[in-house]
Amino acid sequence: MANKTPTDSGTACKKKTARKTGKTREKFDVAFYLAWCKACGICIAFCPQKIIAADKNGKPYMTDSDRCVGCRFCEIHCPDFAITVSARTPKRRENDA
User: Fold this and answer.
1) Are 25 and 71 within 8 A, CB to CB?
2) What are the phi and psi torsion angles at 31 (to 5°)?
3) In this predicted structure, what is the pLDDT of residue 42?
4) Going by C-beta distance under 8 Å and a sequence separation of 6 or more, which residues neighbour residue 23?
5) How far apart are CA 37 and CA 41, in angstroms?
6) How many alpha carbons lie under 13 Å from residue 93 in its C-beta half-sphere?
7) Assessment of whether the complete model's pTM goes beyond 0.70
8) pLDDT of 1 strictly over 90
9) How many other C-beta atoms lie within 10 A of the C-beta of residue 82?
10) What is the pLDDT of residue 14?
11) What is the C-alpha to C-alpha distance for residues 87 and 28, in angstroms, rounded to an integer?
12) How far lies 77's CA from each of 6, 42, 46, in Å?
């Protein structure tokens, strides 16, 4: 049996397949309830994409929400329950009924 390299992992294969087929990746919205947030920075530390940053008061914000993979690590680890992650739904146009 051959040794697996990082490119042999299932995740890498799925990413390559998605690129080849032209399918778009699901996008997510992250909501921060700043009134509940105590600016601990746990969400910033746990984000695997490193797309959560802190403002001058230490409160979190998204730097690039389109890169969010929806892992919910920030939501799960937030001690104040100040974060929700939800799948982005397409907005309906006014002409669609």
Assistant:
1) no
2) -110, 130
3) 97
4) none
5) 10
6) 2
7) no
8) no
9) 21
10) 44
11) 4
12) 27, 7, 8
Residues in CB range of 15: below 8 A, 6 or more apart:
none
Place of tokens 């939501």: 75
For 17-57, write each residue's pLDDT tens digit. Answer: 445 666 678 899 999 999 999 999 999 999 999 999 999 99
Q: Please tell me the least confidently modeled range out of 10-14, 23-27, 76-80.
A: 10-14
Q: Specify the CATH number of the domain 34-88.
A: 3.30.70.20
Instruction: Express the helix, strand and coil content of the chain in percent, nearest 5 each.
Output: 30, 15, 55
Quote the CA–CA distance of 93 and 38 in Å, as a whole number: 38
Would you kindly state where each structural domain of the chain is located, as residue ranges?
34-88
Residue 88: the pLDDT is 87
Structure-token pair, residue 30: 């992250």
